Amino acid sequence: MAILPPENRLWWKEPLSGTEIVWIAVAFVWGLVMFGTMVSWHFVGKQNLSNEAYRIDPAVYAELTEAQAEKYKVRMEGNLDVPVSHPPPGSDVYMLGRLWEWWPVLELEKDQTYRLHLSSVDWQHGFSLQPQNINLQIHPGYDMVLTIKPDKAGEYAVVCNEFCGIGHHTMVGKIYVVDKK
Amino acid sequence: MSEQSTGSADQQDERVPAMQRLLDNPFLLLFMGVATPAALYLIWGVMELSQVPLAQ
Amino acid sequence: MAVDAQAPARGFYEAKFRTCPETGLKVCAQAEALIKANAVVAVVFLAVGGFFGLLVALTRWPAVHLLPADWFYLLLTAHGADVLLFWIIFFEMAVLYFASAILLNCRLAAPKFAWLGFILMLVGAIVANVAVLQGESSVMFTSYVPMQAAPHFYLGLILFAVGALIGCFVFFGTLVIAKEEGTYQGSIPLVTFGAVTAAIIAVFTIASGAIILIPTFLWSVGYISHIDPLMYKVVWWAMGHSSQQINVSAQVAIWYAIAAMLLGAKPLSEKVSRMAFLMYILFLQLASAHHLLVEPGISSEWKIFNTSYALYLAVLGSMIHGMSIPGAMEAAQRKRGLTNGAFEWLRKAPWGNPAFSGTVFSIGIFGFLGGISGVVMGTEQLNLIMHNTLYVPGHFHATVVGGTTLAFMAITYLLVPLIFRKEIMLKKVAQWQPYVFGIGIAGISLFMMGAGTLGVSRRHWDIGFSDAAMSFDYPAMAFAMMTMNGIAGVLATVGGLMFVIVIVLSVFFGKPRTPEAIAATPTLGAGGEVVAQAGSETHPKLPGTIILVAVFLVAFVLYYYVNWKYLSEIWPLS
Predict the structure, then answer these.
(1) pLDDT tens, position by position, C355-402
(2) DSSP characters for A3-37?
(3) Of A60, A159, C59, C547, whose CB neighbour count within 10 A is largest?
(4) pLDDT exceeds cutoff 90 at A164
(5) What is the spatial distance between Cα C412 and Cα C432, in angstroms, rounded to a whole number?
(6) Is residue B12 pLDDT above 70, yes or no?
(7) Within this chain, do residues A27 and A95 fall inside the same structural domain, yes or no?
(8) A73 and A24 both lie in a single domain
């Protein structure tokens, strides 16, 4: 019994049954298949997280973001005091998370590639793009750079999904994806 | 340690296989179980973070 | 009570023993007292933390939305600490003392230190609870910097961890004494080996916790100006996730123990089961990387290697246990003559015994819901569509509650007659408890995973965004899922309450076990002699187990690739 010492002093030498050997082999191979799937998606898949990141002073990141939002502002979002920024395709696009907003609102063109920078200027936030359901963790002091290619037009919400204090559930931003002008 | 009734007679003198001796040694296992994740997860992970470049 | 005179020269205390009338094991009085104390305190934290969990589930139920936002975040923090840490680790201390002193027929090493550890844990747990309930430490269980809790929140956790570390060393010390004094022959029992695995992972867990929590405490009182948030997260999860791997090891050891105690089941092969535990010792802790798959600044090489537990070798370990335990049960039952068809052995198992039904549900919920979802979510790219959604709590309620908590409940039904030497009261309630709790927990995890698949954020007070400047609506189905989650939460609470009531009444007001009662209703099932030599060619065929593991594998493969299909539909990114 499993609650008593093994009866056989040299239990290591006991033979295995065929069932066990087959199951161990199957489970081991399945592990290799899953490992191989993860590795090969980096070569054949289109959804991989970039490894590009930089350390940056949050104040510097905020200045970069504000300068770009000012430069490419096309309108204000609804009746809110939040600019909508429409940077040129292929460019570096900045968005920041802070208590409790994603700023600014972005307007991107469908099927164009952008280098999206994400960072926080205070606490950790969770970038959750809905209804796409793309989820990234955003840290203060780290500039995360992703190359994205929005392939469906529409209005997307950026929900914060990392707890960031009492206003966490009000932290919603927007990304518009529009057809090419 | 006495070995009464813990195996057949021909097993009495046989040396315990190396893997069994490893599995019977909790302190060796403790060392391996702390060193492996410390090296592969913690040290490697902290090295990665220390190599993140500064933004231009 | 037979008092043994075998107090050895090198011991610091005169150990007192009684001989267990049910097992014939020598029971060290000090170990027994510590098991009782740890188990009772554990159940108190389960009751408190479970109640907080009910309030959280009722707040997430859109039509009820019980708590205001500040209380929701406060009680969610307390819920995590009380059940995920305090209930589980107190109980694990009881498991460690049981698997060492009791199963090895040995006196406990340094009981005074064990009591010191217990007191530190208790004080730490109370201090952390006070800190959270005071309202200045609603930082969630993870307490990610730079969000800051009150200093005594970190201090409480540190005291608790130091106490638990002392408990681990008492456990290792007991192993040394048992070997030196020859209280057992040959190798330690498999269940004790599982406990060794748990204790080893606990040492790594607590060491990592010390590395990160002590600086964080110093930061909270102003001695350190800055803690890097990413560095914090890497080291914190070496504690946060590994602590759950202690649970996995302890719970698997308990599965083996209950299969042995109720059915006389012997492991199919000591070698295979111990190698599976060795895979845990070496690789299980690497899965701390599951929480860092969508972080900036960490390479894909590190992520892939660590998140896969080194080529899924720890998953291999779990899949081996997943076959060995039902296989051992089937072998024992078949030897007993239950040989008809593939599943007579399972149909005619003691389903009315909560220790057995609890174990089976624990294995099923842990494997099918928790295990598969954990591997899927822990796949580097798939984590993109799951990170920080309700899928995460859905997964870990299947592992930690459906798996670990239910296994701990199951063995408690055996500890009450064996260690507390009391009859279980309200037998009917006890009999149904694992069913009610198991269905409730399976519901909680399935509905939260469903909502998470639809994108719903975890740790979120208002998924309707009614106070947000910019609006957004999750799909209507997500709200239906959260309603069902609320209902399942109520059901699980009823199941949890049934457990607490049965155990508290039995321990404090139950009839003592008399020799007549022991003869009439033995706690242990028929002994293991009927089973053939483990691992030999004479082993019975195991068609039922083969079908079960084949169904598991098919479910695993299908669900894994369904999620790759979902991933392939999102925006290309690189």
Answers:
(1) 999 999 999 999 999 999 999 999 999 999 999 999 999 999 999 999
(2) TS--SSTTGGGSPPPHHHHHHHHHHHHHHHHHHHH
(3) A159
(4) yes
(5) 15
(6) no
(7) no
(8) no
Interface predicted TM-score (ipTM) of this complex, two decimals: 0.96
Quick one: pLDDT band at residue B11, thresholds 50, 70, 90?
low
Confidence of residue C309 (pLDDT cuts 50, 70, 90): very high
Q: Which residue of A has its CA nearest to C189?
A: A5
Same domain assignment for residues A62 and A138 = yes
Q: Both A174 and A91 in a single domain?
A: yes
> Which pTM was predicted?
0.94
Pairing mode, strands A125-130 and A101-103: unpaired
Average pLDDT, stretch B6-31?
Answer: 82
Q: How far is CA C558 from CA C84, C185, C544, in A?
A: 30, 46, 21
Q: Which stretch of DSSP H or E encloses residue A94?
A: strand A92-98
Q: How many domains does chain A have?
A: 2
Cα(C382)–Cα(C526) distance, integer angstroms: 47
Would you list the DSSP string of C474-496? --HHHHHHHHHHHHHHHHHHHHH
Together in a domain, A68 and A153: yes
Q: State the CATH number of the domain containing residue A143.
A: 2.60.40.420
Structure tokens at C331: 């072998």
CA distance A93 to chain C (A): 14
Write the burial class of residue C469 (CB in 10 Å: 0-12 exposed, 13-18 middle, 19+ buried). middle
CA distance A14 to chain B (A): 12
Q: Closest to C468 (Cβ–Cβ): which among A35, A37, A170?
A: A170
Domain membership flag for residue A2: no
Q: Which residues of A touch C556 (CB under 8 A)?
A: 30
A1 belongs to a structural domain: no
Neighbours of A55 (CB within 10 A): 16
Examine residue A8 and state whether it is found in any structural domain, yes or no.
Answer: no
All chains having 3 or more CB pairs closer than 8 angstroms to chain C = A, B
Do A29 and A65 lie in one domain? The reply is no
The pLDDT confidence band at residue C24, using thresholds 50, 70 and 90, is confident
User: How confident is the model over C443-461, as pLDDT tens digits?
Assistant: 999 999 999 999 999 999 9
Contact B52 A55 (CB under 8 A): yes
pLDDT digits (tens, 9 = 90+) for C115-127: 999 999 999 999 9
Cβ <8 Å between C385 and A133:
yes
Please give the residue range of the domain that contains residue A35: 16-44
Size of interface A-B (CB pairs under 8 A): 39
Shortest Cα–Cα distance, A169 to chain B (Å):
30
Does one domain contain both A128 and A69?
yes
